[in-house]
Amino acid sequence: MAGKKVIITGVPGVGKTTVINEALSKLKSEGVEYKTINFGSFMFEVAKNEGLVENRDQMRSLDRTDQKRLQQRAAQAIAQIPGNVMIDTHASVKTPKGYLAGLPEWVLREIMPDMIILVETDNDQILMRRITDETRSRDKEGARAIAEHQEFNRSIAAAYAMATGCTIKLITNADHLLDLAATEMADALR
Ligand code: AP5
Q: In the list 3, 23, 36, 69, which could disulfide-bond 182, CB 3.0-4.6 Å?
C-alpha cells in the first residue's frame, strides 16, 4: 500500500519543526512511523555545492530562477522516497521580490500530498520566538508583516487543495501549549 504524503508548513519561527518532533515521538510509541524530510535541507545541499549560498537563510534572497530550479530538484528527489513521508517546508517564501509559492504546480505534481498542515500562532508570539532564536538569521519584520504572511499562506493553501484534492489542516502552536499542538498533529497523522 502506498504511504501517506503530508506537507507541514508555517511561517519561519512558528515552531513547525518543534511540533513535528513532538508529534513523531508520540506516534513512534504506537508503532506509527513517518520519515521526516526537510525540503529546505534538500535545496540547501544543492545550493551550497554550487557555491550559491553559505547558510540556509540566504536562500530566500537567491535569484527566482535558481530558487525554482532548486525546488524542482528537491521535489523530484523527495517523490522517490517510499512509505509515510512528512515534508517540512513552506506554503510560501518571503523573498525581496515578493511571495514565492513554496508548492508550485511542478512541485505538487511530483509529491501529490494527501494533506497539508498549516502550523500557526499569534503574530506577537512568532515575533518573540524569532527575536530570541540566536541560531538563525531571521527576517526582521513586525507583527503586522507576520500577520500578512500567515494570511497569505491560508490563501495559497486553498489553491493547493484545489489543485490536488488534498485536505488542509490548521494547527495552533501557542506558547506553553506545545503538547496540545503535537497531540493534534499526531491525531491528523494516524
Ligand atoms: P526551513 O529550515 O524549513 O525554514 P524555517 O522557516 O527557518 O524553519 P525553521 O524550522 O527554522 O522554523 P520553525 O518554524 O520550524 O521553528 P522551530 O521549530 O525552529 O527552510 C529554510 C529555507 O529553505 C527557507 O527559508 C527557504 O528559503 C527554503 N525553502 C524551504 N522550503 C521551500 C520551498 N518549498 N520552496 C522554496 N524555498 C523553500 O521553532 C522556532 C522557535 O520557537 C524555537 O526557539 C522553539 O523553541 C520555539 N517554539 C516552538 N514551539 C513553541 C511553543 N509552543 N512555545 C514556545 N516556544 C516555542
A: 23
